[in-house]
Amino acid sequence: MADTTVIAAKRSVVVDGFTNSVLDPNLPMLGPLQNGGTIIANTAPGCWGPMITPKLRGGHEVTKPVYVEGAEIGDGVIIRIRDISVTSLATASGNDMVSNQYCLGDPFVAARCPTCDEVWPETHIEGVGQDSVRCNKCGNPIKPFSIEHGYTVVFDITQGVGLTVDSAAAKRIAQNANQYASLPDESAQHSILNYAPADLVGAIVRMRPFLGQLGTTPSKAMPDSHNAGDFGSFLVGAPHEYALTADELQQHKTDGHMDIDAVRPGAVMVCPVKVRGAGVYMGDMHASQGDGEIAGHTMDVAGSVTLQVEVLKNYNNDGPVLFPLLEDLPPLARPFSDEEKKRAAMLAQQWSVKKIEDVAPISVIGTAANMNAAILNGLERAARLLEMSVAEVRNRATINGAIEIGRDPGVIQVTFLAPLSSLDKAGLGDIARQQYNL
User: Fold this and answer.
1) Measuring CA to CA, how many Å separate 394 from each of 187, 390, 391?
2) 3-state class of 375 per DSSP?
3) pLDDT for the residue 256
4) How far apart are CA 273 and CA 76, in angstroms?
5) C-alpha dihedral, 212 to 215 to 216 to 219, nearest 10°
6) Tens digit of pLDDT for each residue in 122-181?
7) Which of these, 53, 198, 394, 419, is most buried using a 10 Å CB contact count?
8) CB–CB of 323/431 below 8 Å?
9) Sorted alphabetically, which Pfam families does this protein's record hold (predicted)?
10) Strand ranges in 138-227 using DSSP code E only, listed in sequence order
11) Measured distance CA(86)–CA(338) in Å, rounded
């Protein structure tokens, strides 16, 4: 990676481009950004658009990483999400089907033309529908993914609701897909609106935008959608050039691809630094999503994002933690009210308990190939971060928290009320105090 520290750090960095769907620590970063500075970006849709664009190598299309001044390996970066605004007028999505004849082992990473036998072929759009992506060389359709049951949805101007439309409207939108998708000028993807799915018609949807990808650059090149324990497991022993061993995946990933719907304006994330300068990136904005993203995909949109980034020295965790909005916390993990504290104080006096804990919410992210392993990963991370046993974390998450599902098959949140003394020791106490007005 080029040494960007010789360039004067900026108070704000405007991100003007995207990766080729691969996060590579050896490529130059944008910036540098001053510690405490602001990143402003116009993001491209993730998931479906890149998934039907064979030349892209990661299943998403995320922003170029930003170098943060003072961020060293072993530190963390505090990312405060100031704003997320949807710019797309419409999008399409649905439950996918995979055809292995159109890929080399992994349809997200290594799409191929079965006629030319070329991996990552250049393609163009012809017509409308699921055969519209065509190989430039032979002219045949290339579709590593097809939609089993899908929909096209339009959004109202207030960004409050959307409505799924019929086939005639979907085809009309497809005629001007890039404009309705609001694809940024530097985006290389084909819009999924070209597929014009319309199996679900007249459904109202609430808009609640968030970022499916937000994090720091892994310490070894990997496809962007696979920077997590579940999707990353597809890289273990893969037949393409981005193959990793299980140990390499664990060592290098930063879990930037979470699809956790609480990663929205007002939330605060703390992410591990595994390369000098951190390499903060983002993308895969969703208009809304239920926990688990159980269809495999949701409403991918373009949008504008504003982040404020600060370095946290000596961060004792290899993955992200999240401080969600108060309303996004599970009921048992919300801070206690004055009335609840008063009643607890009466119990303490009655039963001679000398000290009542001061606590605050924290949500520790766990990822792995399956849900059970992801839960264990989250529990172990929380225990290491807060210097307590896994058994203690289990108890606290049971009586004062919850295990929440970010994405099926293997992204979870271990959310619970933790002692402020433990949060202070981890360097996270002041974040919690500010976030929850403690």
Assistant:
1) 44, 6, 5
2) helix
3) 98
4) 5
5) -50
6) 999 999 999 999 999 999 999 999 999 999 999 999 989 999 999 999 999 999 999 999
7) 53
8) yes
9) FmdA_AmdA
10) 145-155, 161-164, 204-206, 210-215, 222-223
11) 38
